[in-house]
Structure formats: structure tokens, C-alpha cells
Design goal:
406 residues, mainly alpha, Receptor-associated Protein, three-stranded antiparallel beta sheet, transmembrane helix, metal ion binding, T2SS_GspF, calcium, General secretion pathway protein F
Length: 406
């Protein structure tokens, strides 16, 4: 059976929407008529709706959030652990969802499972929602017969990733707002306030102080070219984003990031923590080490680090230990390498990888906290310095006039 999305008119002529399962579109239309509904549109749930923008790039197609994915995974884990058959668990999770998109997706997955496919295979129809790591863990859980516990681990992992991502975003909101307000205040002063205050000096024959001349020239520039400057900045950002779509250019940019003092440490900490956490949960779910290394490498956002992870997998495949392969890369944190070595020696590699990820995330949180603690007073000082320069540029000609009067 297949899940179908429908739009139909009820007895009052009101348009209703929903999902039904059936062997064919014709059968679903028959089910609708038996419910006194007149079908308007019936199509498979995994196809874009007819009124959607079919030309949209895949990147901008709707996808569920990490929070929704964690909630669905948690529901499935609870239902599977309650010894409910998988197809019934999927149907129950779909019924509990308020999102039509999630409901249709789960019903489509259930249809494939009812046809005899594995859950992991059924999820391949939605790669934007269930990534390779997710499907590999589900496949390992199905193969070992421990799907419920694996789904619980997946829910914990997704919730932790969402929490970390949210924490990073929240940490960056205040600095961006502060910088935006500072720029807006200075630009407003230059465009609206400064011309009114220094206009009385422009038509005088006296030579103005250099600072005042610079202020007047800057004010004239912003008034004449401010809008064009803003458009140029937007165009530059769009152009750079388009250029970075090319993998070779993006790799060069990522390589430059790893050479910037301070910033490189932040990039490596974020990526390697994600790598260690993903590798730990994959191995704990029963995924073989080589497969786990290949999948965990895909979560690295920096292409240079991703290439290093591939080299690590190749060395391990050739017989090297994981800690030696990580050490030879030279980019993974020494503490992570030492903890991996300890885990390999004690036979608790996945546990030590999880601890390594926790340590790196705590260190990352402390680093961000320190950066924010330094950034806030620095921005206040910079803002105060710029306002002071504007005030001095306005007051210097007035001081000169007072001197001449005396």
C-alpha cells in the first residue's frame, strides 16, 4: 500500500485535506467517495504538491527541523520498545503528528515497510530528513534486533545536536545585534546629525581642522553613496556565496580558515567534537569501525578535515590503529587522540569517544564564553571611540572660533 495526499470537498462544499493509504489512486478516490467526499486531487504523499514550486532547488525544499526529527524518533523508540509492530508504530506516530508534512512522510515510510522493505531502506526516500548516519544506525539496529534502544540513542543524539547548535546560535545573536546597532548609530550620525552641526563651517573661508574635514567628507560620501555601498555589500556577499558553491574554491577557503589564529581552533573544536560524538554513537549501535569512520566523516563541515577523516579511514583499513591514524593527520586535538588510545587499550573506544566529544564541547563553550566576555566591552570601547571622534571633529572648529574671539 502507498500513502496518498488528497484534497476533497465535503457535503457542505468545504475543502478538506488529509492522507489515506491505498493500493492505487483509484482505490483512494473510492474510499473518499464512500466517506461522502468528492475528490479534487489525489497524489502520492512523497511527491511535491501540485501548487508547490516544482522548480525550486533541492536545497530549498521543505524539510523537518531537528526538534521534529528528535520528537518523531523518540515516539518511534517508545512505541517499538512497547513491542508494537513497526508498521503500527509508524502509523501511530503519524496519527500523533500535527504536521501534514511529517504525517505524509511517516505514512509513506510505513507503506514501504508494509511491502516488506526494511525501515532503513524505506527511509532512503527522504534523504533530506534521514541522513546517512541515521539510516546506518537504523540498519544496524534492525540487523542486531535492538531497534528500540538504537532509536533511543538516535533521539538523544539529535536532541544533543540541536541543543549544541541552538547554544551556538544564541551565543552569536547578541554580538551581531551589537555590531548592527553600532553601525546603524554611526551611519545615522554621519547622514542626519553631522551635516546639520558642521554645515555652518562649510561656507566659511577658514581652514578647518583635519579631523573635521575627514568627518565632512565621510558624511558627504555616506549621503551620496550610502545606498550604493549597501547594495555593493549585498552583491559581494551573494557573489562570494555563489563562488563558494564550487568545491575547489570552498576547499581553499576552508584551508584558509584553518590558518587563521584563534578561528582555526574554533573550527577544529566544533567539527572534531561532532565527529567524535557521531563515531561514538555509530560504534555503540553496532556499525563496523570502517563504515562508522566513513559516515562520521560526512558530518564534518570543513572539507579539509573531511579529507583528513578519509585518510584516517584508509590508514585504519590498512591495519593502523585509530589513535595512530588520527595522530598522523595532525589536525585532530591531542586530547582526543590520547583518549582514543586509552579507549582502544581498554576496549571501551565508543565510551572514550563520547567523553572526548563532551570535553571538546565544554571547552568550546568556555572558549565562546571568553570571546563574548571580551567582545562586549571591546565593542563598547570602539563605539565610544567613534562617537568621541565625531564630537571632537564638531567641537574643534568651535574651539578655534573661541580662540579667535579672545
Amino acid at each position: 500500500m502507498t500513502a496518498y495526499r488528497y484534497r476533497a470537498l465535503n457535503e457542505q462544499g468545504k475543502l478538506v485535506k488529509g492522507f489515506l493509504e491505498g493500493d492505487s489512486e483509484r482505490q483512494v478516490r473510492g474510499q473518499l467517495r464512500s466517506r461522502n467526499l468528492r475528490p479534487v486531487e489525489v497524489e502520492e504523499a512523497n511527491r511535491p504538491a501540485a501548487n508547490s514550486l516544482s522548480w525550486r532547488p533541492r536545497l530549498f525544499q521543505p524539510r523537518i527541523s531537528a526538534g521534529d526529527l528528535a520528537m518523531v524518533t523518540r515516539q518511534l523508540a517508545t512505541l517499538v520498545l512497547s513491542n508494537l509492530p513497526l508498521d503500527e508504530a509508524l502509523q501511530a506516530a503519524a496519527q500523533q503528528s500535527r504536521s501534514a508534512r511529517i504525517k505524509g512522510m511517516l505514512l509513506q515510510v510505513r507503506s514501504r515497510v508494509s511491502e516488506g522493505y526494511t525501515l532503513a531502506y524505506a527511509m532512503t526516500e527522504f534523504p533530506q530528513v534521514f541522513n546517512e548516519m541515521y539510516r546506518a544506525m537504523v540498519a544496524a539496529g534492525e540487523h542486531s534486533g535492538h531497534l528500540g534502544p538504537v532509536l533511543e540513542q538516535l533521539a538523544d543524539y539529535t536532541e544533543q545536536r540541536q541543543y549544541t547548535s541552538q547554544k551556538l546560535k544564541m551565543a552569536m545573536i547578541y554580538p551581531f545585534i551589537l555590531v548592527g546597532v553600532a553601525i546603524a548609530v554611526v551611519v545615522a550620525l554621519m547622514i542626519f546629525v553631522v551635516p546639520e552641526l558642521v554645515g555652518i563651517f562649510v561656507h566659511s573661508n577658514r581652514e578647518l581642522p583635519l579631523l573635521t574635514q575627514i568627518l565632512i567628507a565621510s558624511s558627504d560620501f555616506f549621503r551620496a553613496w550610502g545606498l550604493w555601498l549597501l547594495l555593493a555589500i549585498v552583491a559581494l556577499v551573494v557573489t562570494v556565496r555563489q563562488l563558494l558553491r564550487n568545491e575547489s574554491r570552498r576547499r581553499q577557503w576552508h584551508r584558509i580558515q584553518l590558518r587563521i589564529p584563534g578561528w582555526s581552533r574554533l573550527v577544529v573544536a566544533i567539527d572534531t567534537a561532532r565527529f567524535a560524538s557521531t563515531l561514538s554513537i555509530l560504534m555503540a549501535s553496532g556499525v563496523p569501525l570502517l563504515d562508522a569512520l566513513r559516515i562520521a566523516g560526512q558530518v564534518l563541515t570543513n572539507l579539509v578535515l573531511r579529507e583528513d577523516s578519509k585518510a584516517v579511514a584508509e590508514r585504519v583499513q590498512e591495519g593502523s590503529s585509530l589513535n595512530r591514524a588520527l595522530q598522523q593527520s595532525g589536525r585532530f586535538p591531542p586530547m582526543m587522540v590520547h583518549m582514543v588510545a586509552s579507549g582502544e587499550a581498554s576496549g571501551e573506544l565508543e565510551t572514550m569517544l563520547a567523553r572526548s566529544a563532551d570535553n571538546q564541547e565544554r571547552e568550546l563553550e568556555m572558549t565562546l564564553g571568553t570571546m563574548m566576555a571580551l567582545f562586549e566591552p571591546l565593542m563598547v570601547v570602539v563605539m565610544g571611540g567613534m562617537v568621541l571622534l565625531i564630537v571632537l571633529a564638531i567641537l574643534l572648529p568651535i574651539f578655534d572660533l573661541n580662540t579667535m574671539v579672545k
